[in-house]
Write a structure and sequence with these properties.
alpha+beta, seven-stranded mixed sheet, 24 strands, 49% helix, membrane, MacB_PCD, Macrolide_Exporter_MacB
Length: 784
């Protein structure tokens, strides 16, 4: 063992460049591999941490006219409660209604402090289904309407490190008491770290009010289909005229990847294609690094063969020599792994931690780090086995008389290995460019309204109800602000909006809906193509709602023309038709959608203020004026002003994050590949020194020698490009299927990928071979 260890240290000192490059390539690969696996594990383990995860389901219903076979997870309260009571195999059923962020005030010191926090209304049974790890109080607080449960993180924001149990929170005109504090749920769950409150009798008998999610806990997972079939037979079949014709239970841990569910509230959702792509990239990076490892070790074989042969002559067995070579490989691999841990730890303390959704801290990923450590050990063994047998398998005669390093078999092996690296690099570059193009296309495609210089800020219900006109006057007093309007939602904030169902001429019509003030279309520059815009007269009307439908809605229902009154349940006057606009992301096609004018007499709150700022205005000054205007009314209110660029960035956060991930790891793959090329050039220049010297004696120039070295690699790159293009195109086509709107295929993407790899390869080969090409031929011939 001492001999093996001594040889290992000697090798590190003798071949410093090779050792450093090996450790650099491997450590970079291990760090990238570990970070990517953190993200993959985060996505694949969504909602699996709940102790009853295998028995928790979400209730979903199919619409009778959902042509795309989509299932809605937002249902009416009577539907969910009826289903929950339909079978003895249902252990518990609970409802939730997301309230998004609400304005709360708490007393901090002598002054009230305002903050926006997420609220979820629920039934008490939620605590029977999900694991609330209570730190203060208990879950019985959910049985009382004026008591709430809050997560530990919210308790810290509100009350610091003081006990939160029994503390008071003001919500509008209500006083709520903290009845319990629970430990925050992990990030990868559908259940929010929010303020939970009993929903009371809210919409208890209104089957037409779709606002709730239903969670069902079964006694045994095997009874799922029996429960659904029983409900369909005894509750749905006897009522063939009802809207929903089919129900299903979706396992909670499957919700994240469900792609046929029409979520109508902001919902965490993943894409299996993206997860698969990240996993492929992770293993490709490791494969490239392992190939480098093998290439380096075999490339160093000619420089070590005489030493190995000498040890044989002196009596050292082949087994010990092979064990030593394998130990060297494993040792380098483990050193690289330790360096990788340092890299990951440092990155976790910087803004690069936001590169992935998962927690990058090593303490949160110890099992994963242990698996990667085992992988590093295995990688060292695998990468060391072949070179160990390869170096010790040559007879002394070949060592003394021949150049086995330049044999056809040796060249072929190295060519295959470096070709794999080139193929992977080209595939990653092509994928990267297509992801960038698609992301850029989604961010810059016209949305059907003017998003430039539109500032959005949320306001409290009190400000809207009691100070709306004063706020509008204050805002419009600024010279650069031209329009101020209000809405109950933020455009392009989600792929899901509330759905309204109406009956007209015996036909069910369902459409997305957004409540707005009378000048909203003017503020957003949404064109009217038929009929008219909202007016002040419409805003004062109380006997009926006022609608403007988009083209998609009218196209599917030609009777919905301006001047028509809907009077079957939902009373509304249609006054106009607007051009289609993208109110969700470009992942989805434009759906039927209507803007509904809210009467000035209505109790409904339009809590988003849209401010149109004139082009050329000092935006910083305008934002400052918006802040001052709101604080003049409510000094404690936490104002947050954002522009549509930020809204779109949040909407496409998944694509932007994927873009950054692929960019980084593509660069790492190229770097590791070029380290491999660098190693091979070292090998070639070392063992063709005599050939180079002879060529120079016969008149070869430095440029001709550099061309000779580059020609081989350029040919390899060209062949790899032909192989890589269809592979990359197949993977990208699968990913693009997630988007309803895509830019045309850009042929230049493939050319750019080829040019990048060619340029980096030529630069690497030229820099490394230049020394050999400029060496004195007398010296190279003499020392070969």
């Amino acid at each position: 063992m001492q001999l093996i260890l001594r040889n290992f240290i000697t090798i590190l000192k003798r071949f410093k460049t090779a050792s450093i490059l090996n450790v650099l390539g491997l450590s970079t690969a291990f760090a990238a591999f570990l970070i990517l696996l953190m993200q993959v594990r985060y996505e694949q383990s969504f909602d699996k941490f709940h102790s009853k995860a295998e028995r928790i389901y979400r209730l979903e219903a199919q619409d009778e006219e959902a042509g795309r076979t989509l299932y809605a997870c937002i249902l009416s309260r009577p539907q969910i409660e009826e289903f929950a009571a339909s079978s003895p195999h249902i252990a518990a059923g609970a409802l939730t209604e997301d309230q998004d962020e609400v304005y709360l005030t708490v007393k901090q010191g002598d002054h009230p402090t305002g903050m926006r926090e997420q609220m979820v209304l629920c039934t008490p049974e939620l605590a029977q289904i999900f694991d609330f790890a209570m730190l203060e109080g208990d879950t019985t607080a959910l049985r009382t309407p004026d008591q709430v449960l809050i997560p530990q993180s919210m308790a810290r924001r509100m009350f610091g490190h003081r006990p939160a149990y029994g503390a008071q929170i003001t919500y509008g005109s209500e006083r709520l008491t903290v009845g319990g504090v629970y430990r925050d749920f992990p990030r990868n769950t559908q259940i929010h770290n929010a303020l939970y409150r009993n929903m009371g009798k809210r919409f208890a008998n209104q089957r037409g009010m779709w606002a709730f999610k239903g969670y069902i806990l079964l006694d045994r997972a095997a009874n799922k289909q029996q429960v659904v079939d029983n409900y369909m037979k005894n509750y749905v079949a006897p009522h063939p005229d009802q809207r929903q014709k089919d129900y299903r239970l979706t396992l909670l841990s499957d919700v994240y990847y469900t792609n046929d569910s029409e979520d109508m509230t902001p919902q965490t959702h993943g894409d299996k294609a993206q997860t698969r792509l990240l996993l492929i990239v992770a293993f490709l990076v490791i494969a490239i690094a392992a190939i480098n490892f093998i290439n380096f070790t075999t490339a160093l074989a000619p420089m070590r063969i005489k030493s190995i042969n000498t040890q044989k002559v002196l009596g050292c067995s082949t087994g010990i020599l092979r064990a030593g070579l394998i130990f060297e490989a494993v040792g380098l691999s483990l050193i690289a792994y330790l360096v990788a841990l340092v890299i990951v730890h440092v990155l976790s303390l910087t803004s690069y931690a936001d590169l992935i959704s998962a927690d990058m801290a090593l303490t949160a990923n110890l099992p994963l780090a242990a698996y990667v450590a085992a992988g590093a050990l295995l990688a060292g063994l695998i990468a060391g086995l072949y070179p160990a047998w390869y170096i010790t398998s040559f007879p002394p005669a070949l060592v003394l008389k021949g150049s086995f390093g330049l044999s056809p078999k040796g060249k072929r092996l190295r060519t295959v290995l470096i070709s794999i690296q080139f193929i992977v690099s080209i595939v990653l570059i092509i994928s990267l460019l297509f992801v960038k193009i698609q992301t850029r296309y989604m961010q810059t495609t016209p949305l059907g309204f003017d998003k430039d210089n539109i500032a959005i800020t949320e306001i409290s219900p009190d400000i809207y109800r009691n100070h709306r006109e004063a706020l509008t006057d204050r805002l419009e007093s600024f010279p650069g602000i031209t329009h101020v309007s209000y809405a109950n939602k933020k455009l392009c904030n989600s792929d899901d909006y509330g759905v309204q169902g109406i009956m007209d001429q015996g036909i069910n019509i369902h459409f997305g809906i957004m409540a707005v003030s009378h000048n909203f279309l003017t503020t957003m520059s949404i064109p009217i193509i038929d009929g008219r815009n909202f007016t002040d007269v419409d805003a004062r009307k109380q006997d009926a709602a006022t609608l403007i439908c988009n083209q998609k809605m009218v196209l599917g229902n030609p009777q919905l023309i301006p001047g028509k009154r809907l009077a079957d349940g939902f009373v509304a006057d249609i006054v106009g038709t607007s051009a289609d606009m993208h109110f969700t992301s470009l992942r989805k096609p434009v759906d039927p959608f209507a803007l509904m004018l809210v009467s000035t007499k209505s109790s409904q709150v339009l809590n988003f203020c849209y401010v149109k700022i004139k082009a050329g205005t000092d935006l910083k000054a305008a934002v400052g004026h918006i802040n001052q205007s709101i604080h003049a009314i409510d000094p404690a209110y936490p104002v947050n002003v954002e522009f549509f660029d930020n809204v779109l960035n949040a909407l496409y956060q998944g694509e932007i994050k994927l873009n950054r991930q692929i960019t980084l790891f593509s660069l790492l793959a190229i770097l590791i590949s070029m380290i491999g090329v660098f190693g091979l050039v070292i090998f070639d220049t070392q063992y063709r020194r005599k050939e180079i010297g002879i060529r120079k004696v016969f008149g070869a120039t430095v440029g001709e020698i550099l061309t000779m070295f580059n020609r081989t690699y350029l040919y390899i790159v060209a062949v790899c490009f032909v192989i890589a293009v269809p592979v990359a195109w197949y993977e990208i086509k699968l990913w693009l299927q997630n988007f309803a709107y895509q830019p045309p295929i850009r042929i230049w993407v493939f050319a750019v990928a080829l040019l990048v790899v060619l340029a980096v390869t030529i630069l690497t080969v030229t820099l490394q071979s230049y020394k050999a090409a400029t060496e004195n031929p007398a010296q190279s011939i003499k020392t070969d």
